[in-house]
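Contributing: when you submit paired examples, paste them exactly as shown. First protein:
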Amino acid sequence: MLDLSAMLQPGLSAEVKKTVDLDDTAGTSSPYLNQYLSTSACAALAVSASMAATEGRLPEGYLSVGRRLDLEHDAPAMIGTTVIVKATLREVRGNRLLFDVLGSDALGVIFKGVNERVVVNRIGLEERGTERAQQLKALREKL
């Protein structure tokens, strides 16, 4: 089994910076929200920061995939606002990584949360995905 604690220690962190633009809003869901950072964009930024923290630190053929994301979106951020998102590794549990994520602008916290990721072998992931797709295809053919 892969020993991640030898490669990744709590406290490891990474930041991503993003200036909110139209693609980051919920404007397609509601015309009243077309100028504000959407919760789904916050989630994407949280995942990006967490992935950046392990970039280049996992062995060849391994990657992290999302398992759980718990997010609290506390303050609005409008188009043009620069948001900095920091993910900090809190804990390594076997092949699971728990990141504390904080998104803020110059005035303070916009969102915070926890992103749990699982480190997997890329080939094994592809095999499991292909097997599941074949099972679904066989089920559709029966119906």
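Second protein:
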Amino acid sequence: MTKSELIKKLADQTGMQNEVAAIMVDTVLEEITASLERGQRVELRGFGSFGLKDRKAREGRNPKTGEAVTIPAKRVSFFKAGKELKDRVDS
């Protein structure tokens, strides 16, 4: 499902205009993003949680030349599915 499909489905199910549904979807996604930027975890009960993991700096290799390169430390986002979502997908 794409973002535009989600907006259309929300508008159809609630009877609101597509523009209003788009604002709602954008607001939810923006708040999740802003929380992650602040280093906070986002939990949606029954669906899952979004969080951050710290990756240490490490040595890697350029696949073309084989030359050693330093890969800097960084924070990466991750999603962990909740129990209800896992159960629904698995059945």
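If you have annotations for the second protein, write them as plain sentences, like these:
The helical segments are 3-14, 18-37, 83-90.
The domain at 46-91 is CATH 4.10.520.10 (HU Protein; Chain A).
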